[in-house]
Amino acid sequence: MQAKILQLIFKHSYRALVRKRETALKKQEELWKEITSLAVNTSFGKAHRFDQIKNLSDFKRLVSIQSYESLEPMIAKMVQGEKDILWPGKIEMFAKSSGTSNAKSKFIPLSKASLSENHYKGGRNILSIFCHEFPDRNIFESKNVSVAGSFSKNEYGKKIGDLSSLLLANLPQWVQLNRLPSISSALMLDWEGKIEIISNEILNEDIGSLSGVPSWNLLLLQKVLKKSGRKTLSEIWPNFQLYMHGGVNFEPYRKAYADLIGNPALVFLETYNASEGFFAIQDRFQEGENGMFLLCNHAVFYEFLPIKSIGNEKAKTLQLNEIDLGENYALIITTKSGLWRYMIGDTIRFVSKDPFRIVLSGRVKYFINVFGEELIEDNANEAIKNTCAMLNCSVDEFSVGPIFPEANGKGGHEWLIEFNVLPQSLEVFVNQLDLELQKTNSDYEAKRSAGLLLQLPVVKILLKGTCYAWLKSKNKLGAQHKVPRLQNHRKVIDELLKIKVFIKK
What we know:
The protein is an alpha/beta fold and about 500 residues long. Helices cover about 40% and strands about 25% of the residues. It is built from 18 helices and 21 strands. The strands form four sheets. The chain has an eleven-stranded mixed beta sheet, with helices on both faces. The protein is globular, with a radius of gyration of 23 Å. The N and C termini lie far apart (about 60 Å).
């Protein structure tokens, strides 16, 4: 009875979500006015003359685009318990986020308003979309598995840790009743021990859905399958019908998950959520359709900076009514946690304006432009996906760095790849990958013309588990950590090569 009631509730709530699509521009205008008015008496609001803001132009003129480094001194005060700094009152929780390109941890403030109006609201919208799109399935009749990180309290009593753990610890009771594993297991600090314990807890349960970062969930599911002695997870969990994923590009994992689960009716639902906010949800599931529905009434105000303008202090950001389809933009957000015109570090591309739908195209810092090729993460992911589909192989992890030219030599790109399924011929794989990269990026194609500036990519096959070992060596085991895909330096790939590598001739 409870499962049926919940399904009806979430089916009904979908209607409200649809109405919000139609008023996205109006809601965004209302949001920046509300957020700035609430923070007028904060330290940041006083320093940037929020009381003088009359329109959006004033807001952009008085508040420059911010980075974590520019906000860090004020965040440090908040972590120490000071109030009314970036946001009214005291902030009690901080999501700890450490980018692989920067060893320094970031502490992203999480206000009560941000949790309720953004993160949890986004989570409810996932269920609304699923219940609407798949009315014959009741996701509430089985258990949901979510793999979280961990948190601890600092000397000032502030909770600091992975976003997933902070959200899990504060979930409503009705959600807790329908989820696994136990809170104590889910919040364990030791990731290797956590995977072992969770696999035991869920092995003999009725699991209907799974959520979390693909890399860590894949390890968990592989362990469960091994313990069961079965061929697929569908033999263990016949009601397993939904996997909610986000955080990394899912395409390199899709085939591995499909083979592991063995249920062709399984729904893969993509989300765009981060420590800084919950931004978008996949709402279309027909083959060939892509894009995630942008959440425009979830306590986040958006701006979009053309990637060619990154680094230009006078560059103009765009609003939803000014964007173009197919262009890559750096995402700028203003939130109810005190992130003001904050460059989150992701790049996105719009695939629809009615409603507004986006795809993640990469990271601001994760690209290669050593030789003028301007290769972004989206190009690399697309090339890998197409190459694997053509050659019937699959990739788990990869990282790419430059090959710097020596005297009388040419530069190029070195790819380190962990395969789930190896290609029959590495030579054929390399050539096809090169062709796919040329198809997705005209600058790369030009630099590869006749091999004048760029040589053929060099591909080295990493032993399974190498990327995991690298993360462990950096103390970065956890749901939010991943090996960077692209970089303009060799630091990461050189470190990977020192762990374990073989080259398949």
